[in-house]
Task: inverse folding
């Protein structure tokens, strides 16, 4: 059963990317002629529908808490733990507003996935080249200042069931330098859905959005480690069993 489910989920993922590609491409291009905001929302809604159908096919038992904490407007950064590749699917399904993310440059070579990342407002980062990496981060900061939103995974890599990893220094630079509102996010159970055994299986999955944290009012010296510690403690608390 798990093998059949895995085939169905991956087949639908590929079919979706191909069939909806023309609609997303047109919307992406229209964004360059003064329709960026509505077209960005349109592309996100396509991705949201796709994500929710895939989640349905997995059979996961979902618990979603705190969506009322997400502002509908303004510059915003979601800051989340990162347990598996299924995390982005959950964020697409339940964040309720378009967001971009920074992906490793290797994904830019995978057909359709590369374009969908661009359509959704994602950026590719070259971690080996500091100058190029800083330029990518600068683009992300400017997008947030313009009223957009991004998601940050401050652990820097997937934890793969090892629990919450230490946050990397400077990992929330996108949020602090843009003075964005931060929404802490705790995702639990996602590693079990696929990566634990590399077969899609139904497991309890929990998504919790914490209360907003303003960065604009925090003194500059505290925006680095003090704020990182605060966010990490909030996410750790949400991940703890009730």
Result:
């Amino acid at each position: 059963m798990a093998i059949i489910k895995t085939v169905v989920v991956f087949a639908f993922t590929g079919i979706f990317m191909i069939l909806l590609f023309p609609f997303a491409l047109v919307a992406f291009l229209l964004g360059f002629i003064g329709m960026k905001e509505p077209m960005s929302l349109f592309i996100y809604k396509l991705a949201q529908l796709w994500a929710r159908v895939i989640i349905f096919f997995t059979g996961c038992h979902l618990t979603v808490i705190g969506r009322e904490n997400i502002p509908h407007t303004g510059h915003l950064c979601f800051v989340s733990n990162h347990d598996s590749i299924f995390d982005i699917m959950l964020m697409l399904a339940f964040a309720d507003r378009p967001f971009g993310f920074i992906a490793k440059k290797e994904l830019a070579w995978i057909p359709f996935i590369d374009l969908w990342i661009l359509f959704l407002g994602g950026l590719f980062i070259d971690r080996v080249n500091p100058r190029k990496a800083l330029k990518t981060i600068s683009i992300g900061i400017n997008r947030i200042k313009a009223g957009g939103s991004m998601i940050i995974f401050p652990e820097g890599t997937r934890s793969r069931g090892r629990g919450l990893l230490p946050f990397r220094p400077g990992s929330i630079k996108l949020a602090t330098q843009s003075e964005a509102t931060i929404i802490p996010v705790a995702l639990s159970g996602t590693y079990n859905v696929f990566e634990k055994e590399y077969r899609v299986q139904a497991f309890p999955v929990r998504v919790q959005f914490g209360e907003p944290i303003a960065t604009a009012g925090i003194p500059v010296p505290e925006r680095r480690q003090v704020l990182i510690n605060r966010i990490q403690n909030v996410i750790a608390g949400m991940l703890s069993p009730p």
Observations:
- The chain has one domain: 2-239.
- The chain has nine helices and eight strands.
- The chain has a mean pLDDT of 89.
- The domain at 2-239 is CATH 3.40.1130.10 (Glycerol-3-phosphate (1)-acyltransferase).
